[in-house]
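#structure-requests
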Amino acid sequence: MAQIGEEISVSTAARLARCSPDTVLRWIEEGAIDAWRVSRRGWWRIDLGSLERYLERLARKTRIENTANSARISRAARSF
């Protein structure tokens, strides 16, 4: 679990999330994770706790979708 106020770079967030930096930037633009610019060149700092909460929501959503798909596939298999 993250320390309060712990901040990380886009590249570190991408490594933790196992995705590309472009995906992390998209999440920032969508407002899905808390981040702020630290320079005029556009460097971002990301709140680690915010990233962890977002990844947990994604994981929960994926588990729910996978459970629903498994039930759907199971019902379809019984109909044959």
